[in-house]
Design a protein that fits this description.
This protein is of the alpha/beta class. The chain has six helices and four strands.
Length: 165
């Protein structure tokens, strides 16, 4: 039996980070690969203009981070249901996500988690999915509109319900 017991290895052992295929990727490598498939990562002012032109901003931050505020008009979709809610073919999709060529701009706190998630939406076939460069922190720092977290309407908090198609 390995040190630490069970089937898993020990962190720091020669086996850590391997799956029988060699070393896995670092988070920096995963992030670079994700961003390489994104069409363009708009900054805050550009994302605001895109929203005015019909792009859908999707706030995927957790409840604790959304207490800092919310971008007006952004959909709130938790990270753990993002793919189901953003897949136009899913029975669980959000009604606003109704076609494949929709421009979707994901928003996380700083623009890292959203890059990884946007690359996943690309794999689903949403070829115009991307994320906000710098995330919500950059949006707020740019002085763009922010609703206080306490004033966020309850219907902005989207639960997991079937879409009406």
């Amino acid at each position: 039996m390995r040190a630490g017991g069970g089937r898993g290895g020990v962190i720091g052992s020669a086996e850590a980070g391997t799956t029988g295929r060699g070393r896995g990727k670092t988070i920096d490598e995963l992030l670079a690969a994700a961003r390489a498939v994104l069409p363009h990562r708009p900054g805050p002012a550009e994302a605001l203009r895109a929203q005015a032109d019909g792009a859908v901003l999707v706030d995927m931050r957790g409840d604790d981070q959304r207490r800092d505020g919310l971008i007006p008009g952004a959909l709130v979709v938790p990270r753990n249901s993002l793919e189901w809610r953003c897949d136009p073919a899913s029975e669980w999709r959000h009604p606003a996500i109704d076609h494949w060529d929709l421009r979707i701009i994901l928003v996380c706190q700083e623009g890292y988690q959203s890059s990884l998630a946007a690359a996943t939406l690309q794999q689903l076939g949403l070829l115009h999915a991307t994320d906000l460069d710098g995330g919500f922190i950059a949006w707020a720092a740019a002085g763009l509109p922010v609703l206080p977290g306490r004033d966020v309407p309850a219907d902005c908090h989207i639960g997991m319900t079937r879409a009406t198609v």
